[in-house]
Amino acid sequence: MKRLLAIELQKIWKNRASRILTISYFVLLSSLVLISYIKFDFGPIHFDVAKFGIFNFPYIWHFNSFFASWFKLFLAVIIVSMMANEYSYGTLKQNLIDGMSKKEFILSKFLTVFLFALISTLFVFLMTLILGYSFSSYTEFGIVFSQLEYLVAFFIELLGFFTICLFVGVLIKKSAFALGFLLIWKLFEGICYLLMKWLIFDTWEKSYTALGYFPLQSISNLLPEPSRRLSVIKTTGNQAGFDMSYDYAIHFSSILIVLVWTAIFVYSSYKIIQKRDL
Fold it and tell me: How far apart are CA 66 and CA 245, in angstroms?
């Protein structure tokens, strides 16, 4: 496995565009720290993000995981390009000639996306500890390390999304078309959401629940939007007459759905490579 992973990492690092995108991705993840410096005065009003409580443990695990998940698109480009380059430069055929089996080839790709997801999660873990201990009002051990399930959901979200990108890259070969296909796929799920409401279900809630079994939506559902957990948002919403009750829990069923899709996409990628005339 080390040999397979070393081969893939070498391919990525030697590609200038992939190298720049990888570095940019982790630089952007570091921007989590910059949020703490957002301060400005608007007349008599002093705005300080850190005083809103977003860096308090354990809430910060939820906020940072959700915020960092938006940057996964950078690695999506790398993964799709990684597969496109295999076809364009003929390295896939050369790897097979050199003795690598098709199963080992897909395994090497999966190990790469798994490593990307794992390193990203560890990076966010460290950034969160730094921010939390710098700004949180609560630093007791039991509070600090509670609600780490949001970080687990972040890892599963990245892994699931990256395996979809891997599958699309294997299927379509061209990186630009593959990325366009992801956008079309998202639009397709949105259309299915509308059709299910009009043709199958009688409420939007039931249609949305069914949509949660689709691959991209199931990944989006893993990490609920965290802003409504803040006391200032809750208070403002309640005073305005809005229902601020919301389920922020990480459900095992949601994780299981994404893991099933992950297995499906990895296996489908292997079957495509196995049957395709390379």
Answer: 19
Cβ atoms within 10 Å, residue 74: 17
Which one is predicted more confidently, 33 or 184?
184
| Residue at 245: amino acid letter | S
Confirm if 244 and 237 have CB atoms less than 8 A apart. Answer: yes
* Average per-residue pLDDT for the chain: 84
What pLDDT score does 87 carry? 80
DSSP state of 203: S
Whether residue 252 is predicted with pLDDT greater than 90 in this model: the reply is yes
pLDDT over 80 at 159, yes or no: yes
Please choose, from the candidates 263, 247, 167, the residue with its C-alpha nearest in 3D space to the C-alpha of residue 209: 247
Extents of the domains making up the chain? 2-20+49-230+246-275
Helices (H), 98-148: 102-135, 141-144
Written as six digits, the tokens of 84 are 């496109």
